[in-house]
Amino acid sequence: MNKYQRLVIIVALIDVLIMLLFPPFNGRSLARGVPESFDGYFPVLAALGDKPINSALLSIQLMFVGANALAAWLVLQTKGHHTDIPSFRYAEGIGIFLVINLALIFLFPPFEPYQSLQKSAGSSFDSFYFVFGDRSKRPFYLPMLQLEVMWVVINALALWLLFNAVKRNDDAAREKILTLAASLPDEQLEKITAEIQHRIEEHHHAHDAQALGRGADRRHGSDPAYHGPDRRSGHDRRDRH
Fold it and tell me: Is the pTM of this model over 0.85?
């Protein structure tokens, strides 16, 4: 896991924590026979009262965060050794993330129920539907739509600020190393370069040994826990008739 992946996980965990602390609740009407409807977001302690949590909406929110975190994790996965910086420019990646999420939000916006078409009925949230589907004549539930857009923009801005801070720290550390290297004599600089190259090669060999199918063949060595004669040194039984 590189530092950029850790930042993505931290932001995703903060999102999940906020969603669990302030889940969506349904409101119960005083009239009999009226189904529950979305009431709003309240602290989780409100569940101790008469307001039930809208588990379907909460599950959709958590799956949305998980899908984005997994996509970012895969994109930021580095393939080379000692490569802690992604091979693409993170500003463009965050921009693509923002465009895709906003496109999904506006393609499947929150709609109000049919009852909201009546003048006497207030606006409320029904569900998410395809914008060009048969429910397109119903009005959007604007508070939910605004909250979704604001949440995506805040996440994109937070990731951009965090990635930018990490990049500045890396550039500053690199500049210090180059300045120090320029002040060293040639012989000392060659020794340090050789030592760094040796450490990198050792890390490569250790990483390859841990990979599946790349480790050393234990059949070619002796088992230190076995002190008896090597049974492989006898005649090959396949030659017997």
Answer: no
